[in-house]
């Protein structure tokens, strides 16, 4: 199971990013645990300078704007 964190204050883009992660994981058959991180101090500690951000298994893979769907699938299938 992949541990995924979606970082953002709760804006529409952040909500869309969270849903994109869940949809891509379901489509690929990848088990994920998705956590939404809205605390700005925690977001900054994670190194996210622009939201939404995504980390997979502790590694920051995306920050700022909606992720590219193909890249998102690559990240979910990696390792």
Automatic annotation (TrEMBL):
The lineage of its organism: Bacteria, Pseudomonadati, Pseudomonadota, Alphaproteobacteria, Rhodobacterales. NCBIfam families: redox_disulf_2. Signal peptide: none annotated. Residues 3-77 form the Thioredoxin-like fold domain. It comes from Acidimangrovimonas pyrenivorans. This is Thioredoxin family protein. Gene3D superfamilies: Glutaredoxin (3.40.30.10). SUPFAM superfamilies: Thioredoxin-like (SSF52833). InterPro entries: Thioredoxin-like_fold, Thioredoxin-like_sf, THIRX-like_proc.
């Amino acid at each position: 199971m992949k541990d995924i964190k979606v970082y953002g204050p709760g804006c529409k883009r952040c909500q869309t990013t969270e849903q994109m992660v869940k949809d891509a994981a379901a489509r690929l058959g990848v088990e994920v645990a998705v956590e939404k991180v809205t605390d700005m101090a925690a977001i900054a500690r994670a190194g996210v300078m622009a939201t939404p951000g995504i980390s997979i298994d502790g590694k920051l893979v995306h920050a700022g704007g909606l992720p590219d769907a193909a890249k998102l699938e690559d990240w979910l299938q990696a390792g």
